[in-house]
């Protein structure tokens, strides 16, 4: 019977006196999308931010994911640009800036002011359905 094959070479390789391991790079876009703050961003806005935006989010050190989620939902309801990370950081750092918890917006009375955009009308309809459900209604 032939002898067993030798063990495979080690994953660590010496380079300039330092060892290199097979650990994944945490700054790759794929690795960053696994971070809770970025995963929440992707779930809310249904898109993956650029690598630069992901780095900004990670550098801001979002610790309270539920607050971060509230910030992004309020941001979305206002129709603000989801790429304006700086504005969301302002809200995260100072939660008093976040819109009211119900997300209700003050719309101008019919026939006055500018008409609501499609997004604003859609968000208003969602707010109305949520309010109806809170009051015990059903769909």
Describe the structure.
The chain contains 6 helices and 2 strands. The chain has 2 domains: about 15-100, no CATH class; about 105-139. By secondary structure, it is mostly helical. It has a two-stranded antiparallel ribbon with strand order 1-2. α2 packs parallel to α4. The longest helix has 17 residues, at about 120-135.
Write a brief structural summary.
The chain is mainly alpha-helical and 139 residues long.
Task: Name the descriptors.
mainly alpha, two-stranded antiparallel sheet, 45% helix, 4% strand, elongated
Q: How many structurally independent domains? A: 2
What structural class should be given to the helix and strand makeup? mainly alpha
**Low-confidence segments:** 100-112
Q: H/E element string?
A: EEHHHHHH
| Average residue-wise pLDDT | 77
Strand order, main sheet: write it out.
Answer: 1-2
Rg: 24 Å
Alpha plus pi helix count:
6
Instruction: Tell me, briefly, the overall form.
Output: elongated
Biggest sheet architecture: 2 strands, antiparallel
- From the N-terminal CA to the C-terminal CA, the straight-line distance is 74 Å
Helical fraction equals 40-55%
Strand content: under 5%
What is the tally of beta strands? 2
């Amino acid at each position: 019977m032939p002898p067993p094959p030798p063990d495979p070479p080690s994953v660590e390789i010496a380079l300039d006196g330092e060892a290199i391991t097979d650990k994944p790079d945490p700054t790759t876009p794929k690795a960053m999308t696994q971070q809770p703050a970025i995963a929440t961003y992707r779930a809310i806005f249904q898109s993956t931010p650029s690598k630069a935006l992901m780095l900004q989010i990670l550098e801001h050190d979002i610790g309270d994911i539920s607050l971060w989620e509230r910030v992004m939902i309020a941001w979305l309801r206002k129709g603000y640009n989801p790429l304006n990370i700086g504005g969301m950081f302002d809200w995260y750092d100072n939660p008093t800036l976040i819109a009211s918890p119900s997300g209700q917006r003050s719309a101008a009375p019919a026939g006055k002011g500018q008409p609501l955009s499609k997004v604003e009308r859609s968000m208003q309809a969602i707010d109305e359905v949520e309010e109806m459900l809170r009051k015990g209604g059903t769909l």
